[in-house]
Predict the structure.
Amino acid sequence: MSIERDLKKRSNNSCEFCKNTEKLTTYQVPPKPKNVTSNQSIYACHTCIEQIKDPQKTDTNHWRCLNDCMWSEYKAVQIVAWRMLSRLRNEGWPQDLLDMMYLEEEDLKWAQATGEGEDADDKVIHKDSNGVIIEAGDSVVLIKDLPVKGSSMIAKRGTAVRRVSLDHENAEYIEGKIDGQQIVIITKYVKKL
């Protein structure tokens, strides 16, 4: 069974957050795993997904639906609910819901993997050469030939690096595999795909 079919059945053909029934699509909850299943995905409307992806477009009142969906039996829905409540917590009512919410330790790590819930001053944001935000699990392409320290290898310009991981202490560093070797890459030399 396809992921989308699973999610349609699970959600009864409606957004798993606001219950909208139009412009629905699947969304893989970052960081993206190697083998994506419906357990790592949500089924949501265009409005919800747009606001999940772009904090600048977040409409606080739209997310009053979190009062119900935070109790979902599906972990991916709980993770996104936690992230949105964390993003909105300064509004007052989301902090009350966040205080009631419980996530297992492993699920909390997943929820915190994107940096949501951290204070803006403490949050390390990775950006590519064009200023586009890079998240864990994204793919990037090298824009310059890069010598690999401690090796005679040169990572060639145009090389795609899939499923990068982030250095949570330094916004300039990401990690990825090139020719089977895990290397640290400086963000100003990559472009997000």
Summary: The chain has a mean pLDDT of 89. Helices lie at 3-11, 46-53, 66-69, 75-88, 93-100, 105-112. The chain has six helices and twelve strands.
